[in-house]
Write a structure and sequence with these properties.
Distance between the termini: 38 Å
Order of helices and strands: EHEHHEHHHHHHHEHEHEEEHHHHH
Strand content: 5-15%
Shape: globular
Structural class: mainly alpha
Oligomer: single chain
Number of strands: 8
Strand order of the largest sheet: 1-2
Mean pLDDT: 88
Low-confidence stretches: 1-32
Length: 483
């Protein structure tokens, strides 16, 4: 600690003061004294609030880190080439012009989680505060695991490409300075660290409802997601199943068919937690504003991204699918996904951002069961999602295929940042099909550039920005990317 007295905090974290985190207003403004910043448990909670505030940014989990996984796929697209999401949709980014925000925000989260984890066990606490301390430590571990997972899946190849032998991102466990030059770890090493953090977090976290903060069940579903990406289907299934059972005992439940179209804007509470296990909470007085998912996905906002004609036709194959009721139409031009609904008396730009839902746990269990050749379990966990979408439908008595589960994931998780990753981790190719629909007359793929794209799914990986490469000469790009 004496060798590294100050933690240099990136400017993105300093905006957290808008949440009333005055502990960040230190002198000098670019540093936090690691020997004095955490002395009692309330300091840990203040630090966590700063991390959640960083996550709240439109460059992080209220925007870019979510829509990247959608507009690089085939179910959503940029409304036009001038929209904010267009460079992702068109794969315009290279190592020379790629955004540094993915990198800087996620490492800011990791850095400040490290600050907590380096200090929390040194604090002298009363016995009655042990559970409180454990919960705070569990949050820091879970959020660090989440950030490293997202860094790895953005900047590294899928684990399934070569069992994680290719390059991932640097694993940072201490406090870096502006002169630090960490080398990249392998994808396998990153997954090992992610799983370790999340496993430890699930043993520490409380299962109680904790609005806007990750709890045991959210961390457990995230861990099952990581196992699924790693193709460890036994652990993915068992962890998802345990998360479902635990969360439902705590009062969480899948929304009903009747609730589904409007439940996204509900003010969840301990007495009625609904099915969102972890969300970014935005308020009128504290939100990312018009750059957030709510405004970008709205015809009354910046209308940046819409569904594709091919996805619309896919979804309306069942005209009674309740998920059609989430579509908001701009005349007969475009259709937007209205999942980012504001709570009562709030504006569309202040909508909360659901990051982990109980629905995903059911779909993870179903997919893992298919890959384990356990059809009974696949039916058990897929059927509630199918029947919720249309109570007249069921998969009882069917042989469930991977395609069947992935199709249900597309319908259920659209606009939540999953589609491209789901294709990549399963070795599938993103195929953008030019179709037309009279109800979406202006919705067309921007085909002028499509002929020049190498649609090999490995090429979708976002390269590390040149600025980070220049600052860290020990780093290497994945050699197959084509520097």
């Amino acid at each position: 600690m004496k060798l590294l007295k100050y933690l240099f905090v990136s400017s993105v974290l300093l905006v957290a003061t808008s949440c009333g985190n005055n502990w960040l207003d230190l002198d000098p403004s670019t540093s936090v004294d690691t020997e004095t910043s955490i002395k009692i448990l309330s300091d840990v909670e203040f630090t966590l609030n700063g991390i959640y505030s960083t996550m709240q940014s439109s460059d992080a989990y209220s925007g870019r880190l979510v829509y990247y996984g959608d507009v690089t796929g085939d179910d959503m697209q940029a409304v036009s080439s001038t929209k904010r999401v267009a460079n992702y949709y068109r794969f315009n980014f290279t190592k020379d012009n790629g955004p540094t925000s993915h990198w800087s925000y996620l490492y800011s989260i990791i850095q400040n989680c490290n600050l907590i984890l380096m200090n929390i066990d040194k604090l002298k606490i009363d016995e009655e505060d042990a559970a409180y301390r454990d919960d705070l430590k569990g949050e820091a571990l879970a959020l660090r695991g989440l950030a490293l997972f997202d860094l790895t899946r953005i900047f590294g190849y899928p684990y399934t490409k070569n069992n994680g032998a290719s390059l991932g991102v640097p694993i940072i466990e201490g406090l870096s300075t502006i002169d630090s030059k960490p080398a990249r770890n392998t994808v396998a090493q990153c997954y090992e660290k992610i799983i370790d953090d999340l496993t430890k977090s699930t043993k520490l976290l409380s299962g109680k409802f904790n609005k806007g903060k990750i709890n045991k069940w959210g961390a457990m579903v995230l861990l099952s997601r990581v196992y699924l990406y790693k193709n460890d289907n036994t652990n993915a299934f068992n962890t998802a199943k345990e998360a479902i059972e635990g969360a439902e005992k705590q009062g969480y439940a899948l929304w009903t068919n009747e609730e589904y179209p409007t439940a996204w804007g509900n003010d969840a509470s301990a007495s009625n937690p609904g099915e969102v296990l972890f969300e970014i909470v935005n308020l009128t007085t504290d939100s990312p504003g018009k750059e957030s998912m709510g405004y970008l996905n709205s015809k009354d906002g910046y209308d940046d991204m819409c569904i594709t004609c091919s996805f619309y036709q896919f979804l309306k194959e069942d005209p009674n699918d309740v998920r059609l009721k989430l579509l908001s139409f701009d005349k007969k031009y475009y259709a937007y996904v209205f999942k980012y609904q504001p709570q009562q008396n709030e504006n569309i730009e202040d909508a909360n951002i659901p990051l982990i839902r109980l629905s995903e746990a059911y779909l993870i269990a179903a997919e893992a069961a298919v890959k384990l050749n356990d059809n009974d379990a696949a039916v058990e966990f897929l059927d509630p999602i199918v029947r919720r979408a249309n109570p007249d439908k069921t998969v009882q008595g069917e042989k469930i295929t991977l395609e069947r589960v992935l199709n249900e994931r597309r319908k259920e998780l659209v606009a939540e940042g999953h589609r491209m990753y789901d294709a990549v981790r399963n070795g599938l190719t993103i195929e953008r099909v030019n179709v037309t629909d009279k109800n979406l007359s202006k919705t067309k793929h921007d085909t002028k550039y499509m002929k020049d794209i190498n649609w090999d799914f490995y090429m979708i990986v976002l390269p590390i920005p040149k600025r980070e490469m220049d600052a860290n000469p020990n780093m290497e790009q994945n050699p197959e990317y084509g520097n």
